[in-house]
Design goal:
The complex is a heterodimer of chains A (330) and B (265). Chain A has 330 residues and is mainly α. Chain A has two domains: 1-30, no CATH class; 33-242, no CATH class. Chain A is built from 14 helices and two strands. Chain A has helices spanning 2-10, 13-29, 34-59, 67-85, 89-108, 117-136, 162-185, 187-197, 199-204, 209-233, 246-259, 266-280, 288-302, 306-324; strands spanning 153-154, 157-158. In chain A, a hairpin with a 2-residue loop joins strand 1 and strand 2 (157-158). In chain A, helix 3 packs across helix 8. Chain A starts with a helix and ends in a 6-residue tail after the last helix. Chain B has two domains: 1-79 and 171-236, Rossmann fold (3-Layer(aba) Sandwich), CATH 3.40.50; 89-168, no CATH class. In chain B, strands 6-7-8-3-9-10 form a six-stranded mixed beta sheet, sandwiched between helices. In chain B, strands 2-1-4-5 form a four-stranded antiparallel beta sheet, covered by helices on one side. Chain B is globular. The termini of chain B are far apart. Classes of the chains: A mainly alpha (330), B alpha/beta (265).
Chain lengths: 330, 265
């Protein structure tokens, strides 16, 4: 066991390969109908977005409310590339990531001057502007949405049903989470956190604040772009501007906040919980927004570090007690 | 000379917070800066460390680099580290993360290696963590490494801020009121740790401090500020007897006749 642990410590990607193998067997062992695969794909898409949002909001502390706009950019890059050039998933995915990264730069520039609620307002404007631009341009097939976006295929095998597409979204999710782990556990993640806590002190400690802020925006935009492309190509391959409104933004926020802002697992836990709750409460659709709004407020009030921080705290206190023999309760 | 300023000025509107200060600091010296509140001591620190831009005509040189217009993160990479009067602790980070973030300028790997997550990154991260744990146990905070910085007591916070500033292995360390709010015993302990760190890392120190005992006992030389100007400089003994200093900082020296009058009223 010790040896296994040290191997994982040196080569963390092995843990992700194991996770991949386990998740690969889930559909055939656990799932009973196709809808569950579809739901799993939605969870994976949300995990990718939430992991990216956690970088910029949870770690770097830049309150961005325009992330759904970046998600839309990812989807619509993939959609329009198919519509006008007939490109498939493997071409649209990298292009969508790159294009969204550029939009991430634009979204991040206000953060040089604004912070807190003011930055939130600016990015909210940015996200809404993107949606309105898509909605009002005939170029993007605004009213009808783009339909029949093809599913990817590898060597003639087409991932054309939800239980097949599961593997595509799962792979992308595992890769994205792996990257977010490597980034956040290294010195880059620490630099992000110092900027969140105190930009002036971070600058005095040798951290280039502007560079790292824009880096956080670019990274999280790339995550959102990848998620957007995966979402666009998800069977039945239909995207519409109504799927990228402030309501979706609140859902993404609820994920990150519930999971734990600035917790390495934060976005992932939150995305799983919220997506499942969202699905279970569909009959109560009138109250869904109310529930998510309440979730955000109550989590911030009573569990400021979210579920992730709550679990961490439990183990930390156990360890501290073992080490020093005293209680540490705060 | 490790630090040199010429005609350093900074005004906020009409107020001249720093007015044409020429300052020179040789290597390995411990320089104390004293002066009444609002005399420009902290502004001087902020100008040197690049947090404020100085007024036109100023010149600052650090270790052979012209840093007059350099941004703070660049100045830090030349080896200048500082603490803040208001600590500016990273409250929501663990103690060890606080110290490790001070290591930033010395992190050896590149960003893309970190994204890919190569093995050497994790080896180097572990080495950094070990080194920083050593530093933490040196200042006596090793047991608290995994706690949030906000859970430390006032005295421990001062030690943590000191450790964080040392983590980058600076050439020059500027301490802004390191002992403010500490009890006499803790002050002695802190100064002992600072002196040990100076020996260990070969630091040059500038200390702003209001506790005169600390300044007189530990500093090789003292600079006195008043109304943004340098009014005296010399060894602690010289400065202590300087009339301008006594007037500005300790109050006016009175002869017996004046004293009697003042007390009679």
């Amino acid at each position: 066991m010790e040896k296994f642990k040290s191997i994982i410590r040196d080569y963390p990607f092995i843990a992700f390969i194991i996770a991949f193998i386990i998740l690969a067997f889930v559909p055939s062992v656990v799932f009973t109908d196709v809808y569950q695969s579809h739901l799993a794909t939605l969870i994976f898409v949300n995990i990718v977005v939430a992991a990216g949002l956690n970088i910029v909001k949870g770690y770097c502390g830049q309150v961005t409310v325009g992330h759904v706009g970046l998600f839309a950019v990812g989807s619509y890059t993939a959609g329009t590339l198919f519509l006008y050039l007939g490109l498939g998933f493997w071409a649209t995915l990298p292009i969508a990531i790159i294009v969204t990264a550029f939009f991430g730069v634009a979204m991040g520039i206000p953060s040089f001057r604004l912070e807190g609620p003011y930055l939130a307002l600016a990015t909210l404007g940015g996200g809404e502007a993107i949606r309105l631009f898509i909605e009002n341009g005939n170029f993007f097939r605004s009213t009808f949405g783009i339909s029949d976006i093809p599913t990817p295929s590898i060597m003639g095998y087409n991932f054309d049903s939800p239980d097949r597409y599961y593997f595509i979204s799962m792979t992308i999710m595992i890769i994205a989470v792996y990257f977010s782990f490597s980034i956040l556990r290294s010195g880059v993640g620490r630099a992000f956190m110092s900027i969140r806590e105190d930009p002036i002190c971070a600058a005095a400690a040798g951290i280039n604040v502007k560079k790292y802020k824009i880096l956080a925006f670019i990274l999280s935009a790339m995550f959102a772009g990848a998620a957007g492309a995966v979402y666009a190509h998800m069977p039945p391959g239909y995207i519409h501007p109504n799927n990228y409104t402030v309501i979706e933004m609140v859902t993404f926020l609820a994920m990150v906040v519930l999971g734990g802002l600035g917790h390495i697992w934060g976005g992932i836990i939150g995305a799983i919980v919220i997506t499942i709750v969202y699905d279970l409460t569909r009959p109560l659709y009138k109250y869904q927004l109310l529930i998510f709004g309440l979730t955000i407020v109550l989590t911030i009030l009573f569990m400021p570090k979210g579920l992730g921080g709550f679990i961490d705290r439990y183990f930390l206190e156990k360890r501290f007690k073992k080490k020093t023999g005293t209680e540490k309760t705060t | 000379m490790i630090l040199k300023t010429k005609q350093l000025s900074k005004s906020f509107g009409g107020l001249k917070a720093i007015n044409k200060v020429d300052f020179e600091l040789p290597k390995n010296e411990i320089r104390g800066i004293i002066g009444p509140n609002g005399s420009g001591k902290s502004t001087f620190f902020n100008l040197v460390s690049g947090i404020y831009d100085s007024d036109p005509g100023s010149y600052i040189e650090f270790d052979g680099h012209d840093i007059t217009f350099a941004p703070p993160h660049e100045i830090a990479t030349y080896g200048l580290s500082r603490t803040f009067q208001l600590l500016r602790l990273y409250q929501d980070m663990t103690v060890i993360d606080n110290v490790m973030s001070g290591y930033h300028t010395r992190v050896p790997y590149k960003f893309f290696d970190a994204v890919i997550g190569r093995k050497k990154i994790w080896d180097q991260e572990r080495a950094i963590k070990e080194e920083m744990m050593e530093l933490l146990s040196f200042v006596g905070l090793a047991d608290y490494a995994e706690l949030n910085a906000s859970e430390l007591s006032g005295g421990q916070r001062r030690l943590l801020v000191l450790a964080r500033a040392i983590a980058m292995k600076p050439k020059l360390l500027m301490l802004d009121e390191p002992a403010a709010g500490l009890s006499p015993v803790n002050v002695d302990n802190l100064m002992k740790i600072i002196m040990q760190l100076k020996e260990k890392y070969g630091l040059t120190l500038i200390i702003i401090e209001h506790i005169l005992k600390v300044v007189m006992d530990t500093c090789n030389s003292v600079t006195v500020f008043d109304h943004g100007q340098k009014i005296a400089e010399g060894t602690p003994a010289q400065v202590k007897d300087d009339n301008a200093v006594i007037e500005a900082y300790l109050g006016k020296k009175m002869d017996d006749e004046e004293m009697r009058k003042a007390l009679a009223v």
